[in-house]
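User: I'll paste a sequence; please echo it back and then give the predicted structure.

Assistant: Echoing your sequence first, then the prediction.
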Amino acid sequence: MQAIDVRKRWGWLLLGAITLSTIGDEISLITLMFRTADNRTPFAVPMLLVAQLLPGLIATPFIGRLVDARDAGRLLAVTALIDAIVIAWMAWHPDLVTTILGASVLSISFAIGGTASFVLIPVLAERLGMTLPRANAVLEFVRSAGMLAGPVVGGTLVAWGGVGRALLIDAASFALLAAVVLGSGLRRPVEPKDAEKRTLLSEYMPVLRNRRTTVMIGALMLEVYAISIADVAFVFLITVTLAAGPTAFGLLTACWAGGMMAGATASGTLAMPRPAPIAFVSAVVMGATMLAIGIAALTLTGGIVFIGIAFVFGGAANSLQNVAVRTMLQREAPAESRGKVAAIYSAGTSAAAMLGYMTGGFFTPDNATSAYVFGGTLGALSGFAGWLLYRHSKPKDI
């Protein structure tokens, strides 16, 4: 499998377009939430959340096979163009049915684009003269910046021109991404395979037999599950346990995002010849920060300032783990199987997050501190157990 080089000086322009589209992801989430919240239909917001998550999750195994069988560069361009068209269509049709259908299409399209991006990162890193960890760190920084700026930009656009105008601006960011991907020449051609038909499971079995890959993703799923429990309890920890207001909530959210950006910047300076230990240590650090927050809240020894400092360290560890995990998986898998690895990675973490959100509901609103103690303990154990299993796992060809 041979990648076509990115055209000269287009690589950084491509990263800029990805940054805008990442912010666009957050804009679409917040604007659609505003639109749906104004609808008086019962369960409108839960239906939107399911539409944004479930179709992409169900389609993930087929998406992995699709990305491995097609040029990932062209897939990224096509899905970005589909995103632009669907979001523009939703901007002009504010009814709930259109919103739910559009969100369902975007769920699948975002999943294809995310898997294609995972596969293309090594290609882009080589063309830009970056190490693979640094390329992953740049994209992690972009994602963190989008998480921080997207809700602010989205809220401002909704307040300025309404949901429809905000969605049109979002659509324009995806159209720009499609144009830049096509103009950059970013490609990953695939070699033609024999016409023998194989079942979906048989295509994934070689990937699942790679013990290091399955251990890494399994440990990450447990970590995501633990963090998601705390995510649900976070607002109640601030408003109920600590009796603080929206300002404290916003500042602490910014502390986590700022920590993620700092962690992404730091990870870009590391060569990561062995990324797995960094991933597992980061998991332990994240678990320890959640556990410390829970214990401090239970014993009344820590306030907003302490939680803010813990969030900075937790966010930095989160970014380090994300960069290390992606780097390890991209190195471990041969090029022709990276789409399937990305699919397992995406489906596993999404399923773990949803299960964590449901579990977190059992701790709210009065037991937020217990959620942090439980989630933190589980997160730290995921790092320790994952490392022990990983050390005793031998690499296996996919």
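The domain at 11-184 is CATH 1.20.1250.20 (Growth Hormone; Chain: A;). The first helix runs from residue 11 to 37.
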